UniProtKB/TrEMBL annotation:
<dbReference type="Pfam" id="PF17906">
    <property type="entry name" value="HTH_48"/>
</dbReference>
<protein>
    <submittedName>
        <fullName>Transposase</fullName>
    </submittedName>
</protein>
<dbReference type="InterPro" id="IPR052709">
    <property type="entry name" value="Transposase-MT_Hybrid"/>
</dbReference>
<dbReference type="InterPro" id="IPR041426">
    <property type="entry name" value="Mos1_HTH"/>
</dbReference>
<feature type="domain" description="Mos1 transposase HTH">
    <location>
        <begin position="17"/>
        <end position="58"/>
    </location>
</feature>
Length: 96
């Protein structure tokens, strides 16, 4: 019989990549989206992805999605605030 699981805060720091790998592994084990979501809620609490996100990834695995990284999207690049751009701004401000 399962008891209450005490999860330390250190075990709640999973990246999006980690969570996707867990979902993929769970799908391979034959778990459905609801079961996977429940497991993620047990471990991650409020940091768990939504059931919609879990369903999307559960659907993607059998469709051949092997890469668990984010796919590029149009719009502002994630690196817009990177070191290179910060340096450019600082250089332009020093020339004013």
């Amino acid at each position: 019989m399962a008891g209450i699981i005490e999860i330390s805060p250190a075990h709640q720091n999973f990246s999006r990549y980690d969570i996707r790998v867990i979902i993929k592994f769970s799908v391979i084990l034959g778990k459905d989206a609801s079961c996977i979501h429940k497991d993620l809620l047990t471990v991650l609490g409020e940091n768990a992805p939504s059931i919609q996100t879990v369903r999307r990834w559960v659907k993607a695995v059998p469709e051949g999605r092997d890469d668990m990284e984010d796919e590029p999207r149009p719009g502002r690049p994630v690196t817009a605030c990177g070191d290179a751009n910060i340096s450019k701004v600082l250089v332009s401000l020093s020339h004013e």
